[in-house]
Specification:
The complex is a heterodimer of chains A (352) and B (262). Chain A has 352 residues and is an alpha+beta fold. Chain A has two domains: 2-227, P-loop containing nucleotide triphosphate hydrolases (Rossmann fold), CATH 3.40.50; 235-351, RNA polymerase II/Efflux pump adaptor protein, barrel-sandwich hybrid domain (OB fold (Dihydrolipoamide Acetyltransferase, E2P), Beta Barrel), CATH 2.40.50. In chain A, 24% of the residues lie in helices and 35% in strands. In chain A, β1 (2-10) and β2 form a beta hairpin. The two termini of chain A are 24 Å apart. Chain B has a single domain, classed as MetI-like fold. The chains are: A alpha+beta (352), B mainly alpha (262). The interface between A and B is medium-sized, with 23 and 18 residues.
């Protein structure tokens, strides 16, 4: 649906180099990278706010590289929302409808529908300055949806929201995506990536380092940057289930493997993640508070910056991080049998 | 330490008081030196009445007419960089720094019957000399920098992201200008228009060279002073000051109401 081919842009102190990727219709594509990696520049190039020096952009196989911003129908949710301060919430949402041939009553119906969907019906008469951050964001989103965009571009949409608003926005974005809206979302937060992305692009210093599904990218990191997202190697698709009368819950990884965990999420499909530093390796089963204990065979030992990474097979590949001292003391070698333990509180569940 | 600051403030306040006295003193003297009777007589003097009306009308017409070009130009200056921009900005400020009689001579050179523009105007039956049109041109020449500079500051203070957001939402550049940039810069534009109007109204040097007749009030005050002396010039001056104050207070109030509407 959208394809970027070798997009390059030179700034005084920053270079975007040969950025290429494809986003299919209905995809939820997350571009993950640190601050200053060039994520926002890519979004602005797609939206047409910045002109690329080289390369081409195709939308539905049509070259839109030199198309005017106003003709692209690509909605961009700015990080600061960019609401028009002199217009009411209603007038803000009505703004993209100015150039349509809709009658006043049709416009009103569209705006009312969007207001209900975004839960902002009660604030349509207010000016943006009187709204909270969450309300402003929903107004900005309603305004973009009034445009009926081909693609929705989100510039760090979670960055200034509190936890509850993040959860609300996540489910709203998921719903919009399920309704068929193609979304490109940029973030520096890998938890956002897990919970929302179908496909991920990793960007570092103006270059795309890797592209693929969430599993592909994090299980086979092709750059030290991806690998440096500590602990993210241990994540698995899982189904969260409650156990009668117990606070502790179960994440079913496969027929023969499940982890015990603490989670406030509803039962359902998702991913679990355990940081490698939260996993203990021992010669025999420990008498400890750890609820998850597995006998495992060491598959591989990889020296890392702060010790050794021990990769074991417990039905899935799992990595633990140990200090060089512990590594020597336990005399760990590939093929040796060992015990892997981690607490229920170390297992994080992210709902799909 | 606290005492030192108090002394400093006291000295500064005294100096401020002297400056205020410097402004208010002559004006108060002017008002006190004229009796209500003389004022009333001046008020019914048709020549005075007409000149005040002509001054207000020409200054307002000059401001409104030149705004049509000055406001979009100010937007360009705020948003775009182009070669020799600094020189252009310097040219805009020229009318403020050059002597106004010299400005009058310069304008006269362009609009007199001997000039190309004057000859062309003459063929369609317009004469700039001795005509309110000429007065308006002279007023605009010396006062337009106030509007351009204020409007430029106004446009520069509108976040460019809002304009980009509007484009992203499907608006054309001209729609963005009228629906986003102009309403958000309105405060500065109105303030610039009031300044231009005020400066135009009080202009004497450039106008007197272009058009002695019909007489605007600053020229009338000058003529009364030259022909009859200070006693005859004072009541006209008082009336003109009163009218300008009323107009400015009115305009300021109007523009404030407009701002609170938003």
């Amino acid at each position: 649906m959208l394809e970027l081919k070798n997009i390059s842009k030179n700034f005084k102190d920053f270079v975007l180099k040969d950025v290429s990727f494809k986003v299919n219709e209905g995809d939820y594509f997350v571009l993950l990278g640190e601050s200053g990696a060039g994520k926002s520049v890519i979004l602005e190039i797609i939206a047409g706010l910045i002109k690329a020096d080289e390369g081409a952009i195709y939308l539905k196989n049509i070259n839109i590289t030199h198309q005017k911003i106003q003709d692209r129908k690509i909605g961009l949710l700015f990080q600061d929302y960019a609401l028009f301060p002199h217009l009411s919430v209603y007038e803000n949402i009505a703004y993209p409808l100015k150039n349509t041939h809709l009658s006043a009553s049709e416009k009103k119906t569209i705006i009312s529908g969007l207001a209900i969907e975004m839960s902002i019906s009660g604030i349509l008469g207010r000016k943006p300055v009187t709204l909270s951050g969450g309300e402003q964001q929903r107004v900005a989103l309603a305004r973009i949806l009034a445009l009926k965009p081909e693609i929705l571009l989100l510039d760090e949409p979670m960055s200034s929201l509190d936890i509850q608003l993040k959860i609300d926005l996540r489910s709203l974005l998921r719903k919009l995506n399920q309704q068929g809206l193609t979304i490109i979302h940029i973030t520096h937060d890998f938890e956002e990536t897990f919970t929302l992305a179908k496909n991920v692009g990793i960007i570092q210093k103006g270059r795309i380092m890797q592209i693929g599904t969430v599993e592909e990218v994090f299980k086979n990191p092709k750059s030290p940057f991806v690998a440096s997202l500590r602990g993210v190697k241990n994540f698995y698709p899982a189904e969260l289930t409650s156990m009668a009368g117990m606070e502790i819950r179960k994440a079913i990884i496969s027929k023969d493997l499940s982890f015990l965990l603490l989670s406030g999420m509803e039962d359902g499909q998702g991913h679990v993640m355990i940081r490698d530093r939260d996993i203990s390796v021992s010669a025999k089963k420990l008498d400890s508070s750890a609820s998850n204990n597995f006998e495992a065979e060491i598959m591989e030992i990889i020296p890392s910056r702060f010790g050794m990474e021990i990769c074991c097979d417990i039905g899935v590949r799992i990595s633990a991080s140990v200090s060089r001292e512990s590594f020597k003391e336990l005399d760990l070698t590939a093929g040796k049998s060992t015990w892997i333990s981690f607490k229920a509180s170390s297992v994080k569940f992210y709902k799909n | 330490m606290k005492k030192q600051i108090n002394i400093r403030n006291l000295v500064f306040a005294l100096l401020g008081g002297l400056v205020l006295l410097f402004i208010v003193g002559p004006l108060a003297g002017l008002f006190l030196s004229t009796t209500p009777n003389t004022l009333f007589e001046t008020l019914t003097d048709k020549e005075v009445y007409h000149s005040i009306w002509l001054t207000l009308f020409t200054a307002m017409a000059a401001t409104l007419f030149f705004s049509i070009a000055a406001i979009p130009f100010a937007y360009l200056l705020a948003r775009k960089n182009f070669p020799f921009k600094k020189i252009v900005l310097g040219i805009i400020d020229l009318p403020i720094v050059i002597p106004h009689t010299a400005a009058g001579i310069a304008i006269l050179g362009v609009i007199s019957r001997d000039s190309m523009l004057g000859r062309w105007a003459e063929t369609v039956g317009i004469s700039f000399i001795g005509n309110p049109l000429g007065i308006a041109i002279a007023m605009a020449f010396v006062s337009i920098p106030f509007l351009i500079n204020s409007a430029r500051d106004g446009f520069a203070s509108v976040p460019e992201r809002l304009e980009k957001a509007a484009l992203n939402l499907g608006a054309s550049p001209i729609q963005v200008f009228f629906t986003i940039s102009l309403p958000l810069a309105w405060r500065n534009i109105i303030s610039g228009m009031i300044m231009m109007f005020a400066r135009g109204m009080s202009e004497f040097g450039a106008v007197v060279i272009v058009a002695y007749y019909p007489m605007i009030t600053p020229v009338l005050i000058w003529e009364r002073f030259g022909a009859y002396g200070i006693k005859y010039a004072q009541p006209v001056a008082i009336l003109f000051i009163a009218v300008t104050l009323l107009v400015f207070i009115g305009l300021r109030l109007l523009s404030k109401e407009k701002q609170t509407d938003h």
